[in-house]
Design brief:
Helix content is about 45%, strand content about 15%. The chain is built from 16 helices and 13 strands.
Length: about 375
C-alpha cells in the first residue's frame, strides 16, 4: 500500500513548489490520490482541489484538529508548521495502524552562523549535530530542531531535518512564488534608486528553488522506497548547491537595474546606517545583522586552510555530504546564478514583493529577542 504524504505550507514558497514538484513528477511512487494538503483557510480549497489532491482543513495550532485530520487521512507529514501537534498525531496513527510514519521538518542553515551564536565554524550534515545543538542555548531555530527530534523519538516517528540556505528563483506553487532575501534587496534598491551593500562582504550559501524541490523529492522517494537513511539525531540533511558572494550578487543587481533605468547608476554604495537599511528592507534593525551581515571566522577553536577559507569564506559554513545518499545533483551553480540575476529582478517587477515565509517568520521571531 502506498504511503500517504501530507504537505503543510502548500500556499507558501517552499511548500507550494514541493507540491508542484510531486504533482508534475513521473515517479510512480508519487500517486496523486495519496497526496494530502493541510490548510487552515477555505479560500484555497477550490484551487488545491482542482489540482487533484485531497485537501484537509486543519488548524495546526489546535491539537484536536491535527489529531483528527492526521488519523482520518492516514497521513505522513512534510514541512510542518506546528511540529508538536503533528508529531503527536503521527504517533497516534502509528500506534493505531502499526505502520511506520515519517516527519520532514524544514529548519534553516543560518542557525549555524556565528551571528546566531554558533561557536562551531564549519559543520557537515554527517557531524553529531543534535549534540552540538543541545550544547548551544538561546539560538533559533535550534530549540525547534531539538524539539522535533526528541518529540518524534518519543512518539515512534521517524524524523528528518532539512535546513535550506538562502533560496532564490521563481517558485512553482499556486501562490507565493518569490523567495525572501534577494527580492527584498532588489525592492529596496528600486525604492531608493541605488543598490547598497554592508561594509563587510560575506560568502554564503545558496540553492535554487528547483534544486531544493528536487532535494525534497529525492528524500521522499527514498523514504517511500524503504531506504535505510540516517534519521532522528542523525537525520540532518543540508541541501547546499553552491556558495556566492553578497557583493557579487549586488553588483550584478546594480548593473541589471541600471540597464532597466531603475537606479541612478550601476555603482554599489554602502548603507548610511543599519536603521536606513532595516527600513528599506522591511526588517527590524536588531535582526538585520543576523540575516544579511556575517563575520569571517575568527574563533580560536576553529581554523581553515587558505584553500578552504577561499572556498567557504564566511562563518555560517555548512557542508551537505548526504546529497550523495539521495543521489541529488543540483543544476544551478554560482556562475549560472550570477549570469541569470536579471530573472530575479523580472520576478520582483512582475509579482511585487511578497512578504512571505522565511524572512517574515525569522524577522518576527528574532525581533522578539
Amino acid at each position: 500500500m502506498a504511503l500517504n504524504i501530507l504537505i503543510t505550507g502548500a500556499t507558501g514558497y517552499i511548500g507550494g513548489s514541493v507540491l508542484s514538484g510531486l504533482l508534475s513528477s513521473d515517479k510512480p511512487l508519487f500517486e496523486k490520490n495519496h497526496i494530502f494538503v493541510a490548510i487552515r483557510s477555505e479560500k484555497h480549497v477550490k484551487t488545491l482541489s482542482e489540482l487533484g489532491v485531497k485537501v484537509a482543513l486543519i488548524d495546526l495550532t489546535n491539537e484536536k484538529s491535527v489529531s483528527e485530520g492526521v488519523l482520518k487521512n492516514e497521513t505522513s507529514a512534510l514541512e510542518p508548521v506546528q511540529a508538536r501537534n503533528l508529531i503527536a498525531a503521527l504517533g497516534q496513527r502509528r500506534n493505531a495502524t502499526k505502520k511506520d510514519v515519517f516527519f520532514i521538518h524544514t529548519s534553516g542553515t543560518s542557525a549555524w552562523s556565528s551571528a546566531f551564536g554558533s561557536p562551531y565554524g564549519l559543520v557537515k550534515d554527517t557531524d553529531p549535530l543534535f549534540e552540538k545543538e543541545k550544547a548551544v542555548t538561546g539560538s533559533e531555530p535550534f530549540p525547534t530542531d531539538i524539539a522535533v527530534i526528541e518529540e518524534a523519538e518519543k512518539a515512534g516517528v521517524t524524523s528528518y531535518i532539512i535546513p535550506p540556505p538562502i533560496i532564490y528563483g521563481r517558485g512553482d506553487g499556486e501562490w507565493n512564488k518569490l523567495s525572501a532575501m534577494i527580492p527584498a534587496a532588489i525592492n529596496a534598491a528600486i525604492s531608493r534608486k541605488v543598490v547598497e551593500k554592508f561594509p563587510t562582504n560575506a560568502r554564503t550559501m545558496g540553492t535554487h528553488i528547483s534544486d531544493l524541490t528536487a532535494y525534497y523529492l529525492r528524500l521522499i522517494e527514498k523514504i517511500l522506497e524503504g531506504a535505510d537513511l540516517p534519521s532522528g539525531k542523525q537525520g540532518y540533511y543540508f541541501p547546499i548547491a553552491h556558495r556566492f558572494s553578497w557583493w557579487d550578487v549586488l553588483d550584478r543587481i546594480a548593473k541589471a537595474l541600471e540597464a532597466r533605468g531603475l537606479v541612478k547608476d550601476g555603482e554599489l554604495r554602502e548603507w548610511p546606517n543599519y536603521d536606513v537599511a532595516a527600513e528599506a528592507l522591511a526588517i527590524p534593525a536588531a535582526v538585520l545583522p543576523k540575516l544579511y551581515v556575517t563575520e569571517y571566522i575568527s574563533t580560536p577553536q576553529y581554523s581553515l586552510s587558505c584553500v578552504e577559507l577561499l572556498t567557504y569564506g564566511c562563518s555560517n559554513e555548512v557542508i551537505g555530504e548526504k546529497k550523495n545518499l539521495l543521489g541529488w545533483v543540483p543544476q544551478w551553480d554560482e556562475d549560472r546564478f550570477l549570469t541569470q540575476i536579471d530573472d530575479e529582478i523580472k520576478d520582483v517587477l512582475e509579482l511585487g514583493l511578497e512578504k512571505i515565509g522565511l524572512l517574515a517568520a525569522v524577522s518576527q521571531s528574532l525581533g522578539k529577542k
